[in-house]
Amino acid sequence: MNVFTYMFYSREVKFGEERYEKTTKKLRDSINLVSAKLAEADYFSLEHNENAQNYFDNSASGGKVILFEKLIPVVTEKLLDFNSNPKGNPYTGQDQIGPNKFIINKVKILNHRWIIADYSNGELWGEVLLKYFVDNDDNITFEVNQTWLYQK
Question: Domain of life of the organism in this record (predicted)?
């Protein structure tokens, strides 16, 4: 009986350790995969584009420095503020179809000049590519470059 008990518990510990190692390896591989996918997805973003960030550093020419960390939420908020327009957000590039207006739902600032945004009116969805400009007085203007409305 003692031999049986000893063998059972010694193998149980070994089995538990092997299972722990396999699970840990799987989790590490999953974390590495997710990290790689996140890095790939954020490749086109102002947060990770040093050349685009340097565009806002005009200190060499006697200008001012615009911090991109503060610029991103300001640009996003300004663009989303146009959703309150009774005819819908003019930067969707779409006129109102039916009773619902088109509003921008999600915004991604790609670099120092481009924004991609998702918009909808509750029934139809689309995407728009915008140009944005920040002048010396920190005024932000937008320009619709291209828009796409998906079919139902």
Answer: Bacteria
109: which residues sit within 8 A by CB, 6+ positions away?
Answer: 45, 46, 72, 75, 76, 115, 132
For residue range 35-85, list pLDDT tens digits in order: 999 989 888 899 888 888 888 886 556 667 788 888 999 999 999 999 999
Give all strands of the β-sheet with 103-109 in edge-to-edge order.
103-109, 114-120, 125-134, 140-149
Q: Give the H or E element holding residue 108.
A: strand 103-109
Count helices and strands (H / E) in the chain. Answer: 3, 4
Q: How many residues does the chain have?
A: 152
Q: Which residues contact 99 (CB under 8 A, 6 or more apart)?
A: none
Give the alpha-carbon dihedral of 44, 50, 56, 58, to 10 degrees: -160
145 touches 129 (CB < 8 A): yes
**pLDDT of 119-130, one tens digit each?**
999 899 999 999
Q: Which helix (H) or strand (E) holds 20?
A: helix 2-41
